[in-house]
Amino acid sequence: MMILEATNIRKIYGTKKNQQEVLKGIDLRVEKGEFLAIMGPSGSGKTTLLNVLSSIDRVSEGAIFIEGNNIVAMKDRELAEFRKRHVGFIFQEYHLLDTLTVKENVLLPLSITKTPKREAEKKFAELASELGIIDIQNHYPSEISGGQKQRAAAARAFIHEPSIIFADEPTGALDSKSASDLLHKLRKLNQQRKTTIIMVTHDPVAASFSSRVIFIKDGQLYTQLYKGTETQQQFFQAIMQTQGVLGGVRS
Amino acid sequence: MSMKQLVFRNLKQNIQHYYLYVFALMFASALYFAFVTLQYDPSLDAIKGGVKGAAAVRTGAVLLIVIVAIFLLYANTLFIQRRGHEIALLQLIGMTKRNIFLMLAAENAILYYGTLIIGISMGFAASKLLMMILFKIIDIPVKASLSFSGRALVQTLIVFSVINVFMMGMNRLFLKKQTIVSLFRTTSTTEAKHVSVWNMVVGMAGIVLIGSGYGVSMKLFSSDWKSVQGLFMAMAFILGAVIIGTYLFFKGTISFLFHLWRKRKGGYLSIDDVLSMSSLMFRIKSNALLLTIITTVSAIAIGLISLSYISYYSAEQAAQNYVAADFAFTDKKDAARFTAALRSHDIRYRETMIDVIEAPTDISMILDIADQSRLQFQPSAAALSVISDTSTGRIDVKPGEAVLTGYQDILRQFLPFKETGTIRLKANGRMVPLHYLGMKKDYYVNYHFTHGMPTVVVDQTMFARLQKETDPQMKKVHIGIHLTDETNIERADQLFQRMKFSSIADSRLIMSRYQKQTFGLIMFVVTFLGLAFLVTSGCILYFKQMGAGEEERPNYTILRKLGFTENDFFTGIRQKQLFYFGVPLLLGLSHSYFAVRSGWFFFGTELWTPMLTVMAIYTVCYSLFGMLAVRYDKQLLREAL
């Protein structure tokens, strides 16, 4: 089943006289339950792509369907409503509220959907043990480590059982152990809950946890790799090779 | 970009952000200049003699400058802290601290003196208005004409320049102390740590202290502490207990209550809670001192304005108590001359004549005081005025009975009377017991006779007996002239003033004017000081909220990304500001209520109407700042995504 379908999306920044086309007509189809990684050199437009797919930013042209809803045609209010219910976010800078404890941060998306308290407790208990944040549930973000913060942010992204989760460089600010720890957990949740994950990363190791990697270059789809039946190690090698070919600077 | 350009760019930015600061500075300088202009104005000499007008205005000006100085210095620290990033960046690209200081000084000088000049010109325009208001309040028919006073200008400039020098010194110190790294670091550490037993103890102590302060204030002027020293100690205790209690209340009680509430939620917070409670908890402790100051300042302002308004409001009533008719005489010939003058001018009147005897009266049995030895007079032989019941025309007393009348509220605090009992009147060297039936409020004779004590009303036969036995020296007469048509009062008063009388004669209108003059000027000064208090405390809260809002901006962005819309935020923001502005206000109102209650009877005869009027007006003005803060937050939210 198709969960996300984007056709010919373009994003143009700037004034009429001085235009810069960041996305130059990208087509993308994502199956339900996929773990998709988006890679590309700096300035290739991968974060912009993630922003428009996740409805935080608007496209200049093209159509995006998520679960059959055309989010390009939605008004801001509808979009906000849509994000509340169907989308989860993980950011590089965690984006936890300093004023709330870990548990309060995680439960935030449920309060808007008026989930009964008992059910919320149950969901939290499950997810918190899965992500190993039970012990720190009453701590404030300033009292915990980066890895713990990112796991808390991941819990917040999963708690309301969204159909799709967008992650923007989730391991960008983590040390290698915390990063692999987080990615293992993300993959596990992806497999258990069949939640679609779209992750932007520049780290081949992080990308090797996914089931498919697409490469963007200069605002266009360059190529894509499926993991298929390969081991993670083999997949990692393949990603490294492609990245080598892709390069960063035009010769 | 040259330094000059940089300065002007920064200025452009700042004015947009700090319009309220500019407004407050303008307001303060205008008020100060107006005050000083009044102080130097010769037309104020008209009332200087009687009520020391210039002295009152000068004291006001000094107090005003203290408030303004504290406010400006505080605002300055807030502003420079907010520009930390910018300062660090400029240092990073190679500007020296000295250069940055000069840049800041130049910016500030332009903003400061520019505002000051506008403020002074507004102050000059306003001083005429203030003068007119003052003359209206104190009921003096003088034309308000003002000339520009060079001395006032120089004084204003000097005073504000001194403040500016202090501000610059603070900025220099700030620059010296801070390193680039410390300036870049965002200072957002949580204070909403976990609730402790200590927190609870502090919270309880706060409530207990405020409560005990209120408790003592309730019986401050009752008989419990009669000596001046005791009274002073009690006042100091109230002040200390209430202020420290307020501080602990903000530091402990509120965060404790919030913790309880939050614990009950079990981590499941609604968006309103996130924006209001958790955000407030995050900062409440470090804001405790500020909120305490705001509360105290509000309480002082409301209390003082209330008291002065009570005096002013009661002026009419006080005059009625002092002078028990439109005109009152103690000599029959004086009265006859005056009534003749009235008749010749066709002014109709009614004359009442009340014979008054001063007789030693034993009131020790009806005083509601256990230990009467500390009283200033002999309660067993108090020199009270005695009148007959028929002369009052309203009270009827049977033989062997007596009532007291003409009782001020202030007296009730020092001399509480029982409902009924026995008094004894000295007649012919013997104490005659009379059954005391109670206390009435009306005044029948002048204060020259009563000296603030109540008058004894007895049966006519008893009065006749007393009169026969009393030494003629002790026999007096009160002649009251009541105009039939009150519109003639001005004309009658002019006649009264033109005549010379051989013994004491009073005009209620003159008395009332005198009272209004005294209290009107005080009220005028106090009200404008209160206004300055109000504006500065409102501004400080607003600036503080601006800073807090700035810090919360990333949170708003996160929430917007998660899918919360602007509309989801509004209730929470309103709750937050309602709390932030409302709690100090409510506490301030409560403090001032108890303060006013403990001593209002010294100031006038009416408590509720003037006090509630002042409180209502203060609340409305103060709320404006809260609304501005909500508006600012909404704007932040809109820009957040």
Automatic annotation (TrEMBL), chain A:
<dbReference type="InterPro" id="IPR003439">
    <property type="entry name" value="ABC_transporter-like_ATP-bd"/>
</dbReference>
<comment type="similarity">
    <text>Belongs to the ABC transporter superfamily.</text>
</comment>
<keyword id="KW-0813">Transport</keyword>
<dbReference type="InterPro" id="IPR027417">
    <property type="entry name" value="P-loop_NTPase"/>
</dbReference>
<feature type="domain" description="ABC transporter">
    <location>
        <begin position="4"/>
        <end position="243"/>
    </location>
</feature>
<protein>
    <submittedName>
        <fullName>Bacitracin export ATP-binding protein BceA</fullName>
    </submittedName>
</protein>
<keyword id="KW-0067">ATP-binding</keyword>
<keyword id="KW-0547">Nucleotide-binding</keyword>
<dbReference type="Pfam" id="PF00005">
    <property type="entry name" value="ABC_tran"/>
</dbReference>
<dbReference type="InterPro" id="IPR017911">
    <property type="entry name" value="MacB-like_ATP-bd"/>
</dbReference>
<dbReference type="InterPro" id="IPR003593">
    <property type="entry name" value="AAA+_ATPase"/>
</dbReference>
<dbReference type="GO" id="GO:0005524">
    <property type="term" value="F:ATP binding"/>
</dbReference>
TrEMBL record, chain B:
<keyword id="KW-1003">Cell membrane</keyword>
<feature type="transmembrane region" description="Helical">
    <location>
        <begin position="578"/>
        <end position="596"/>
    </location>
</feature>
<comment type="similarity">
    <text>Belongs to the ABC-4 integral membrane protein family.</text>
</comment>
<protein>
    <submittedName>
        <fullName>Bacitracin export permease protein BceB</fullName>
    </submittedName>
</protein>
<feature type="transmembrane region" description="Helical">
    <location>
        <begin position="608"/>
        <end position="630"/>
    </location>
</feature>
<dbReference type="Pfam" id="PF02687">
    <property type="entry name" value="FtsX"/>
</dbReference>
<dbReference type="InterPro" id="IPR052536">
    <property type="entry name" value="ABC-4_Integral_Memb_Prot"/>
</dbReference>
<dbReference type="InterPro" id="IPR027022">
    <property type="entry name" value="ABC_permease_BceB-typ"/>
</dbReference>
<feature type="transmembrane region" description="Helical">
    <location>
        <begin position="20"/>
        <end position="40"/>
    </location>
</feature>
<feature type="transmembrane region" description="Helical">
    <location>
        <begin position="100"/>
        <end position="126"/>
    </location>
</feature>
<feature type="domain" description="ABC3 transporter permease C-terminal">
    <location>
        <begin position="61"/>
        <end position="169"/>
    </location>
</feature>
<keyword id="KW-0812">Transmembrane</keyword>
<feature type="transmembrane region" description="Helical">
    <location>
        <begin position="60"/>
        <end position="79"/>
    </location>
</feature>
<feature type="transmembrane region" description="Helical">
    <location>
        <begin position="152"/>
        <end position="174"/>
    </location>
</feature>
<feature type="transmembrane region" description="Helical">
    <location>
        <begin position="195"/>
        <end position="216"/>
    </location>
</feature>
<dbReference type="InterPro" id="IPR003838">
    <property type="entry name" value="ABC3_permease_C"/>
</dbReference>
<keyword id="KW-0813">Transport</keyword>
<keyword id="KW-1133">Transmembrane helix</keyword>
<feature type="transmembrane region" description="Helical">
    <location>
        <begin position="288"/>
        <end position="312"/>
    </location>
</feature>
<feature type="transmembrane region" description="Helical">
    <location>
        <begin position="228"/>
        <end position="250"/>
    </location>
</feature>
<feature type="transmembrane region" description="Helical">
    <location>
        <begin position="519"/>
        <end position="543"/>
    </location>
</feature>
<keyword id="KW-0472">Membrane</keyword>
